[in-house]
Amino acid sequence: MWTSSRVLIFPLQVHISLAGDKHMRITWITNDGSSPSIVEYGTSPGKYSAISQGESTKYSYLLYSSGKIHHTVIGPLQENTTYFYRCGGGGLEFQLKTPPSKFPVTFAVAGDLGQTGWTKSTLDHIDQCKYDVHLLPGDLSYADCFQYRWDSFGQLVQPLASSRPWMVTQGNHEKERILFLEDGFVSYNSRWKMPFAESGSTSNLYYSFDVAGVHIIMLGSYAPYDEHSDQYSWLKADLLKVDRKKTPWLVVLFHVPWYNSNRAHQGEGDDMMASMEPLLYAAGADLVFTGHVHAYERTKRVYNGKSDPCGAVHITIGDGGNREGLAHRYKQPPPEWSIFREASFGHGELKMVNTTHAFWSWHRNDDDESVRSDQVWITSLIGSGCNTRGSHEMRRILMTS
Ligand SMILES: *[C@@H]1O[C@H](CO)[C@@H](O)[C@H](O)[C@H]1NC(C)=O
Ligand SMILES: *[C@@H]1O[C@H](CO)[C@@H](O)[C@H](O)[C@H]1NC(C)=O
Ligand SMILES: [Fe+2]
């Protein structure tokens, strides 16, 4: 017989995220306020050789009170290894795999997820691919102030998000600012805590982390980004710390695209682009992923509105499956920098093969199958001739501006 207290400590909405070198943060929710924030874990099922104590939080939003939200960091963990874990001292056992510490490493990418049948199809296809980390450039649950939708989203993504780290940044649908409530991100920040403190940031809305040879920067389209902002100073400092010998790839994510030839959301990224694109260019960013526009688009390497061999490849991938549907209308003719664009739901896979080569593919949801629809080898800026100039100029621009 299950006693009611047994049922109450059942961990809900389990998801994991990278939390500094060799560490992982486990997040879950319980309805029972006395349930402890402990995670027991080990490398064989049912045998827990280590235990970590974490912290918990909760929040209220109008008439809604959240459950107890637990955040517990475990580690140090071995690379590329399966761990079995249990939350709160009971309930189901989960398993996770840590990313490798060297190439190859694979990322799944899908933004603007929501929680529709289309979302389910995208998640099923991601589940079928072999990947190490999920990257999400904003717009998670589409809760839009209805807090119970955060809970149903947490349950929907748990099978994937409890087994591979989900690294997310905020979109407009995370912003739930209403009268009298100053912090528009209270639900998002309470539930989706990311390693901002671990990366020297003071805000959960922007942070960075390393996976194998890739430095990934998550920026906030909805945090101040002008030259006097904290985000701008943090980005400069973070770019100066990047060691391209250790992390030859530099990848950036945020929500609102800078290069977008869809008619939806034209111009919304212009101010952030004017402020931050020179920094990313000076640092030699290889790839930029965004969402917001519910379609897929890939560009040439671009800078300052034109193709440029030393700029970044921009990929808009806001096609995860949300309830607002697809953005079908495009500007005609396409700009010279736009290589591939299509309004279909789907996901992307980015496999960093080695220091210089990555294979990108976009998979359209087509009934039960995921169909690989766009694919390209991307070579890094390392050793391209841009790099030397980039690092030289980077120091000049980053130090003086
Ligand atoms: C990770 O582990 C798998 C299976 O154990 C192995 O095939 C793969 O080569 C490893 N990857 C790295 C980068 O070490
Ligand atoms: C990197 O991978 C690419 C594609 O597989 C290959 O052509 C290239 O030789 C590799 N480079 C190194 C240094 O191994
Ligand atoms: Fe959006």
UniProtKB/TrEMBL annotation:
<dbReference type="InterPro" id="IPR008963">
    <property type="entry name" value="Purple_acid_Pase-like_N"/>
</dbReference>
<feature type="domain" description="Calcineurin-like phosphoesterase">
    <location>
        <begin position="106"/>
        <end position="296"/>
    </location>
</feature>
<comment type="similarity">
    <text>Belongs to the metallophosphoesterase superfamily. Purple acid phosphatase family.</text>
</comment>
<feature type="domain" description="Purple acid phosphatase N-terminal">
    <location>
        <begin position="11"/>
        <end position="91"/>
    </location>
</feature>
<dbReference type="InterPro" id="IPR029052">
    <property type="entry name" value="Metallo-depent_PP-like"/>
</dbReference>
<keyword id="KW-0378">Hydrolase</keyword>
<dbReference type="Pfam" id="PF00149">
    <property type="entry name" value="Metallophos"/>
</dbReference>
<dbReference type="Pfam" id="PF16656">
    <property type="entry name" value="Pur_ac_phosph_N"/>
</dbReference>
<keyword id="KW-0325">Glycoprotein</keyword>
<dbReference type="InterPro" id="IPR004843">
    <property type="entry name" value="Calcineurin-like_PHP"/>
</dbReference>
<feature type="signal peptide">
    <location>
        <begin position="1"/>
        <end position="19"/>
    </location>
</feature>
<dbReference type="InterPro" id="IPR039331">
    <property type="entry name" value="PAPs-like"/>
</dbReference>
<feature type="domain" description="Purple acid phosphatase C-terminal">
    <location>
        <begin position="312"/>
        <end position="371"/>
    </location>
</feature>
<dbReference type="InterPro" id="IPR015914">
    <property type="entry name" value="PAPs_N"/>
</dbReference>
<protein>
    <recommendedName>
        <fullName>Purple acid phosphatase</fullName>
        <ecNumber>3.1.3.2</ecNumber>
    </recommendedName>
</protein>
<dbReference type="InterPro" id="IPR041792">
    <property type="entry name" value="MPP_PAP"/>
</dbReference>
<keyword id="KW-0862">Zinc</keyword>
<dbReference type="GO" id="GO:0046872">
    <property type="term" value="F:metal ion binding"/>
</dbReference>
<dbReference type="InterPro" id="IPR025733">
    <property type="entry name" value="PAPs_C"/>
</dbReference>
<dbReference type="Pfam" id="PF14008">
    <property type="entry name" value="Metallophos_C"/>
</dbReference>
<dbReference type="GO" id="GO:0003993">
    <property type="term" value="F:acid phosphatase activity"/>
</dbReference>
<keyword id="KW-0732">Signal</keyword>
